[in-house]
Design brief:
Keywords: Heme, Iron, Metal-binding. Pfam families: Cytochrome_CBB3. This protein has seven helices and four strands. The protein has 227 residues and is mainly α. The protein has a domain of 136 residues: Orthogonal Bundle (Cytochrome Bc1 Complex, Chain D, domain 2). A hairpin with a 2-residue loop joins strand 1 and strand 2.
Length: 227
């Protein structure tokens, strides 16, 4: 065993003598075993690029791009529409957190129900669109938890259509509106948070759409639409 350690020290001494101690000065480029993404295939700022016809590496944003945190106004400012507020979580109230104090609230916040121009069929339609983009892949188009990912071993997506899901007395199945909003915002279990991807109003629109799916299934006795 002692010869093993002696050999180990001997090999270490050879390496140090050949390459020098860490931090020693040299005009030779370093040997990068783990480059840690120091060199990337990218165009740096204000650099030229022959890939584009105008020779510029820097590109303008895609048409329609908006700064993070703002929404496209429903109507032009000429019609008296107020500038869009910051659309992501910026407060401690029910509208921003889904909570009233330390408890989850139920029902849509006044910021939604009080805006008659938003809280209508178009609001539910918006929720359907956002749900299908962000949620249906795991929770299924009907909210039954059998989305595309369930076919690949991810079987933990919450089933919004399980019996008693609309009954607050059924604690095992029921999720308050604020609780659903909070999970969309912060994530839970294998689900990551979407607070930085989905605006406040769109999160509440998704909550409203989930409720409409549950009500439709309850009234018809069938989970619709079928996955």
């Amino acid at each position: 065993m002692k010869y093993f350690f002696l050999s180990y020290l001997f090999v270490g001494a050879i390496i140090v003598s050949a390459f020098g101690f860490r931090g020693s000065k040299s005009e030779l480029p370093p040997i990068e075993i783990l480059p840690d993404m120091d060199h990337q295939a990218k165009v740096k700022y204000q650099a030229a690029s022959e890939f584009f016809a105008d020779g510029r590496g820097a590109r303008l944003p895609v048409k329609g791009t908006l700064p993070m945190g703002f929404e496209i106004p429903a109507k032009p400012a000429a019609k008296g529409v107020k500038p869009a507020r910051v659309a992501f979580t910026s407060g401690l109230g029910y509208y921003d957190t889904g909570k009233v104090g330390d408890f989850y609230g139920d029902g849509l916040p006044a910021e939604i129900t009080g805006d008659k121009s938003v809280f209508n069929a178009e609001f539910i339609k918006r929720g359907e669109q956002r749900y299908n983009i962000n949620c249906a892949i795991c929770h299924g188009t009907s909210g039954n938890g059998k989305g595309v990912t369930s076919k690949y071993g991810i079987l933990t997506a919450f089933n919004f259509q399980q019996p008693g899901n609309l009954d607050p007395a059924n604690a095992a199945a029921y999720r308050a509106d604020g609780a659903i909003f909070d999970v969309i915002t912060n994530g839970k279990g294998l689900m990551g948070g979407y607070g930085g991807n989905i605006t406040l109003r769109d999160r509440w629109a998704i909550v409203a759409y989930i409720r409409s799916l549950q009500l439709a299934a309850k009234e018809s006795g069938v989970t619709l639409p079928l996955q």
